[in-house]
Amino acid sequence: MNTNPINLSNSDLIEQHIEEILKLIGDNPDRTGLKDTPRRVAKMYKETFRGYDPEQKPVITVFPNNDDGIKYNQMIGDKGYFYSHCEHHMVPFFGEYYFAYIPNKKIVGISKIARLVDYYSAKLQVQERLTIEIVNELERLLKPKGIALVMKARHLCKEMRGVKKHNVGMITSEMRGVFLKNASARAEFLNLTKD
Q1: Burial class for 144, CB neighbours closer than 10 Å (0-12, 13-18, 19+)
Q2: H helix and E strand count, the chain
Q3: pLDDT tens digits for 69-106?
């Protein structure tokens, strides 16, 4: 896999290729509405595919789980939205994620979870790999008693092409530690993911 970040030196090349694609699909890149499209697409790629740039990977702040003599040992969760691109058709998939962990010696700044989800989502992905990459990273940093992630997404490769099925989604999950071994902990977490 190429892990070179998108930078200004290859933005011109991206623009050239987008212009060629416009020609190949039968449009005129010189018409008024498309004049700046290659530049806009190159700029958009720099943002939406920032997950290939290791320098943009967020720094995850962790804290000791015993500040002031208080140790937290219950579930901590986060819910949010994510946007990614299917690696098979390069169209978006997007949805909600539900994350939880039961801390051991460390806790994490909750905004950092969203930043990490955004970073791993910002490249060509399959939802299964995305789910595992996020859990792997947070488990490595936190070493919690348990960690769980559920991702629910709409895939435009399924909705706007191919089978053209609407209002359906894909659900992936990854559970480890207490969430995998303890049915009541798993049930508590899964209850929080219900719509």
Answers
A1: buried
A2: 7, 7
A3: 889 999 999 999 999 999 999 999 999 999 999 999 99
11 vs 53: CA distance, rounded Å: 14
Residue at token pair 């804290």:
63
Please state, in angstroms and rounded to a whole number, the distance separating the CA atoms of residues 139 and 93.
25
Percentages of the chain per state (helix, strand, coil), in multiples of 5: 45, 25, 30
Q: Which residues contact 42 (CB under 8 A, 6 or more apart)?
A: 11, 12, 14, 15, 18
pLDDT reported for residue 8 = 47
SS3 call for 135: helix
The predicted model scores a pTM of 0.91
* Whole-angstrom distance, CA of residue 117 vs CA of residue 81: 9
| pLDDT 10s digits, 141-173 | 999 999 999 999 999 998 888 888 887 799 999
Domains along the chain with CATH numbers: 8-54 (1.10.286.10), 60-192 (3.30.1130.10)
